[in-house]
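Section 3.1 - Work completed
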Amino acid sequence: SIYLDVFSTLEQTGNKADVDAYFERVFLAAQSQLKAFPDDPTYYNELAWLCARSGRRLDEAVSLAEEAVKRQPDEAAYLDTLAEAKFRVGKIDEAIAAEAKALKSRPDDTFMLEQLDRFKKAAATQPTK
């Protein structure tokens, strides 16, 4: 989360080159952790969260989050990351479903409840299909 806080602060400066360089450094460090521990879903989730929350490499964020969930299907944190990644690529209904599943094991989790509310509000503003 410190990385994301710094990322957010850098974005406010408007210096895209610095933001891009910082993201790449953090991404490569997280990716090296994943390569070092390829059987641990934690590293898939952390890299997916970094990408999703920074709004970068979003397709990769979805794939990484899906892999984490595949390895531990009932882990609420991984489902939350998947929900965020799906939301960021515009798959709002899938984001809502993943967040709702995460909340089954953590029904009082304030952050996840806020996430679900954010996703539902976005869904309500989407044009009907």
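Second construct:
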Amino acid sequence: GQWSEDRPGASLLPDGSCQAVLPGLGRIELFPAQLTMPGEHNRRNLMAAGLAAWAAGADPQRLGKALAEFPGVEHRLEVFLKRNDVRWVNDSAATVPEAVAAALGSFTGHISLITGGTDKNLDYKPLRSAYKRANTIVLLAGSGTDKLIPILKEDGIGYLGPCSSIEEAIALAAQHSPPGATIMLSPGATSFGMFKNEFDRGLRFKAAVRSYYGTAPY
């Protein structure tokens, strides 16, 4: 954000932390570099939320810890399980390709992407380079996936599927992900056809992952 020493504002620093200037306090660290919630876009969201909280009367000295430990909301880059050195992420609320691009930019290392679903007149072509960030792509069946497949083929990007069930997609992703990988459901499409809605999709994904490892669904 744009700010100066004489008016309130905040800015992200190169290390990912956020500094703010607040009247009567001068320059403070709004939140540290290490956060619970992943994603550059989420740092910007936290910066705006922190300033809004301060404007509403929150204690600025306590904001840093609260923002750093905020886990995010369900179905939005939700890291819900770590098993066998693999991190599982539920980003079912990502119903447009732009959200998939943001998700892929939020993690490093091997990323296995479970994506695709039902189309809602979306254009995948402007964001086609984002799919190159995924090391493994597992497709869920659907009309949106039917539009995405020719783009992946044209760009020489390999994929597995399309899968007719979330359980099949999870098994494929797990089998093709090395230790240290992040396996992420980020569909970039609607859920209708295979699921009731994006929330049902996310809940069923999480339950199926836990069942894959032989643990209780919730």
